[in-house]
Amino acid sequence: MKTITEFPQETRVIENVFIPMRDGARLAARIWMPVDAEQKPVPAILEYIPYRKRDSSRGRDELNHPYMAGHGYVCARVDLRGSGDSDGVMVDEYRAQEHEDAEDVIAWLAEQPWCDGKVGMMGISWGGFNSLQLAARQPPALKAIISASATDDIYVDNMHYMGGCLLGDNLSEATVMFAFNSLPPDPQIVGERWRDMWHERLAGSGLWLETWLEHQRRDDYWKTASVCEDYSQVQCPVMAVGGWADGYTNAVFRLMENLDVPRKGLIGPWGHKYPHLGVPGPAIGFLQEVVRWWDHWLKDRDTGVMDEPMLRAWMQDSVSPASSYEDRPGRWVAEDQWPAPGIEDREFTLRGHHLEETGSGTDQHGESDAEISMKSPLSVGMFAGKWASYAAVPDLPFDQREEDGGAIFFESRPLTEDLEIFGLPECHLEVSADRPVAMLAVRLSDVNLDGEATRVTYGLLNLTHRDGSEDPSPLEPGKKYRVTVPLNGIAQSFPAGHRLRLSISTSYWPLAWPSPEAATVSLTTGVSSLTVPQRARRPEDSRLREFGEPEAAAPLEITQTQPGRHHWRVTRDLATNVSSLEIANDQGAFRIEDTGSHIRRGTEEWYSFRWNDVNSVRGETRTVRRVERQDWGAEVTTSTVLTSTPTEFIIDAELDAYELDPQRGDPRVYSQSWHRRIPRDLV
Predict the structure, then answer these.
(1) What is the rounded CA–CA span in Å between residue 253 and residue 179?
(2) Phi and psi (nearest 5°) for 452?
């Protein structure tokens, strides 16, 4: 990362400004701007998230916002209502109050003397979501957005459910927000009312996991904030950004296909990170691209950004399997439109235990069509990695030979020439099951000459959602169904001599919660197939404009006072038959020098099961968050346990809050516990 300290314009920062809302509440903003903005107004850029501008997101903010401000923009990092130093209580994500507040913020920015009336909005993850959502609400001053690691469909691509299966990341995300929502505002910003605001949050934010588990199908709860319900509502230009190791990248394809506004898509090898911070690399000069985008749409400058292809993506080369990569080798490819007319479906038939090229002639292996049954052990999935890689721990899938022993798989003959795919593969399967609820996990792997199997992409399907997730229906045991399992989009090269492997299992724990009963699923070969989007190499790809090296403003000055701890461990106790995945993402403790605040952040997760008992699965998370200075401090600990029976999900959660005052005999100031039972809805 190249640190930039001199910019075209000199800037200043306002540590905090309170922005008034229509109901009298105030949202806290940190603002960077050119020093002469009041004399020469410029466009404003909004990033609007719940991750505490004063401390938690401060490091990333320092890299991004001074950079954009130095190129002639006012940048505002605003805490959502109920987060950081803003008023109120936050009770869920992407609700109407959040959007109404954002409209008020955008209008306020546009009216300030240092703003020329034009506003852009950007963000990654939560900020990418609400950038899309606000674009669909069409506030007059919002002229363009950048949405990274986000989605147009809250049910399909957002940590909660995938293919109608409950994701383990549903518990992880609920844990993140449980911890954030329980922290106090900073008295240096809000004054003496900090304690009252804190206790209001502790008592009022609630257990988000309960809410998310109450909506197990794609109902109005999810549709309300999903811009895919009406793409025509988005009327401003959109840059959509994703990474192959992330969980949101399919949305980039849908946005390119369905939006009817100027748009650009960018997909790299990265996990859940901005591209200039991207891991696996290569990271790129993303902030330079951001400035080009804003200059074009907010300053009417011809930067050439709209003369380039609509969609640009990193075609990944073949690599040996690993749970983390510093870089993924490959090259950039591009398409002028999506769907791309030059990409053609290549079909393989599942026959015997092989992938036979459809239309290649007679059965190359001399095997007749048959039914193959599977009932996977719960251990399949322990090496699957995270639904979305955060690059904080080794959270990518490992050698799939560790998983395929509990699956059925179909393997192609060695490729006679290189194969490159770009897009979304699909499986078309004929299946039956012996239980009313069953799931499939489908994985496409690259098998190299040493036999190592690297997962390229995967998909999940709760078979009760075979006709969609709005109105699932139980399976009739023994009845055959034709189902389609979409796999995540990917750009991947398979070298000549390698094989494609399609693996199918009936469990994928803990990435996905298992079905309420262990089901046997039978698959009919011969009529089942895999389709991959084949893309021929093109000489014009080598002539694409090169990205610059990653740049950012000067990093936040911090002092590490306690080391972090990161690991990803799989264990099996042969005496008890209990297997566990233990994840530690402990960032230790550090001091932010410019505020004098000491920050402590740690999260641990455990996912376990006993032998093949689907109702022994257990997810447990614990967090500790502390913020303090010499004269003030608070610590919050949370614990959440999710288990299940054949008919219910069971949540047990605890929250304890401590005021770090040496004069107090008992520093604990708040404690609450929850026990909730939620009926399973064909999940």
Answers:
(1) 33
(2) -65, 140
